[in-house]
Each structure stands twice: as C-alpha cells, then as structure tokens.
Amino acid sequence: MVIAGPLRLPLLTIEWIFAVILLELGLYFLIKYMRQEKQLRTSKGMGYSAFFFDFSLTWFYLIIGNYYASEKIESIFLWDQGSMRALFINFSYLCLITACLLFAFSMEKHRIYLFKKYFFTICFLSLTITSLIVFFINLEIIKIIPFIVWPLFLVFLTIYLVDFFKAGVKAETIVIELLKFIPAFILLAVGFFLSHDYFMQNLALEFRLGGSLLQLLALISLAYFSIGLPAFAEYDWREKVEELLLMNKSGICLIHKSFTDQINHLNEVLMSGALLSVNILLEELTSAKVTGSSIIKKKGKTVNIFSSTHLTGVLISQEELNTINYYLKEFIQKVEKVYQNVFADWDGDIDVFAPVGTMIDEFFT
User: Fold this and answer.
1) Which of 190, 206, 227 is the last residue in one of the domains?
2) For the chain, how far is it from start to end, CA to CA, in angstroms?
3) In terms of pLDDT, which residue wins out, 221 or 31?
C-alpha cells in the first residue's frame, strides 16, 4: 500500500534520513579502504562499503515504492499484471539480497565460518538466483524473501562477529563487543519487517513509525561503534605468524623470535642458512634484485622473505597475507635505520641487537 495520511511526512522524513545515513556509512568505509596502503587493502573493507551502499539502495527503492510510485494494477514490461510500486519494492528486496551476498563473499574470502568455505555465500547466491527467476515470473512472490534473508544474515553476522572479536579482544570482553552490534542488527531486521507489506496491511501505520524509529536508533548505534573499528586488513594476521628470523647478508642469525607455543624448532643457524640459500637461488632464477620481497610456500607454511641493504628478514606464517609482507618490510627498514651506524664497523657481537626485541613486539605482537 502507498503511504498517505498524517503520518506520511514523519515517516518519509525518518526513512530519508535513514537512507542517507546508510549511504554515508558506505562512503565512510570506502574512503577508509582507499586511504589504506595498497598492500593492506582487503575485501573486508569493501564488503562493509558494498553492504551499506546496497542497503541504502534498498531503502531508496522502498521510499520510491511506498511514497511516490503508483499502485494502479496494470500490465507492464514482462508481467501480465503489476504496478510501478510492486516493481520498486522488488528492486529493494533484490538490493537487500545483493548486500548480504557481497558482505558474505567479502568475509568468507579470508576464512571458513561454517561447514566449508563460501557456505553462506553459496546460500545467498542461491537466494539471489531464485529471486531473479521469480522476479521475471511474478512480482508478488518475492515479498517472502526478506523473511528468509534476514534470519540467515543474522546467523552469519553473529558467527562472523564472534570470530572477528576473538582475534582482536580479550575473551572476557567478547560478549561486550557483540552487544554493541548484534542488538543493533536485530533492531534493523525488526524495523525492516514492520515496513513490509504484510505488516502494513494488517497493522496500523503507527507500527511502521515505531519500526522506522527502531531502525534509526540501531543505525546511529552502528555508525557510532563502526567508526571505532580498526582497519580490516586481515584483522587476525598476527595469529598466523609463527617464526621470525633476522639475518645479516652473510646468513648469520642475529635475532630469532617464536610466536607459537611449540617447543621443537629448527636450529636458527641451519634455518637461516637454508632460507638464505633458497632466496639466493630464487633471485637467480627470477633475475630479481638483491633487495626486495619473495615468498616460498612449503607444506602448508609460507616463508616471507624481505632483503634490504644490510639485513634479511624471514617470517614463517600459516598463510600468505599482504599484511605480513608489509609489516616485515617496515620492520626491516626500521631496524636498518636504527642500526645504520652499527653495520659500518660491526664486530660480530649479536648482543648489540638485543633491543630489537622491543621493535618485534611493536610490529608483531
């Protein structure tokens, strides 16, 4: 039903504010993504941006359909019957599914959240394809889609946020962090349902006004807490770092740091010599320069190597991540800058590099 009467203006005002805030959140995450170093950019930042952009489109289409489009039944385009309002409402639901699909894909690209990789992406993709097929058959059937999409999205969001905060906060504060976001998304879903045609036809417009206010409150809360989130650049990358070796150009191990609880490690000298030999061989085969980055993968491990003027850093990780390479390079360059006068007449005493441990903690712990 097209909204009219005394509540039309307050409802329209609130929903326009709601749509604009969503658009601004999308722009915020896009700008945040673009301002990051290229090596630190990940699909997670774009996933948030795409979600809020598509969700804002959802509401722009709902506003057009509920306040401006004609509800007159007529034969349009591919359908035997329908209305311009029904067409825009369908566009809004398709945008909602697309928002969930892009968000799930962006997050699952980096991690398995349930059963197997891309499980939720496949679910949302199946819903998207089904909705598109239904869209070209009947404009009314797709109205049930939000009742499927929102519960599935809330399940995925809960699993994702638990995993997200486990990597970055203490165990005792995970519940507190979740309570900042999960209730807000639940309020968004409840408010969205109250704007659905089923509830509009069976309940008074006061319920829709209440739903719109709930969504506005939830969105303000989300905006406030989202701005305080750290960069999404492989948020848990430090958990994937296992060993760090710092060597000079002769292959002498100056510093070895283990980030795991395992007791048995390879001998530092043997490891550094072997890795240096592999790196030299790799440089010869690829005609690479003496300085620069290289990566070797072996038996589920990734060996990240960065060679500079005086030092070579070797970092063993569980996965190949751009963030790890970036911070390894930054770490080596900082150590060289601090010790640039030492390298000129170094007498072989590795104790002089003991303070490097503080820099390791700064970058990798």
Assistant:
1) 227
2) 57
3) 31
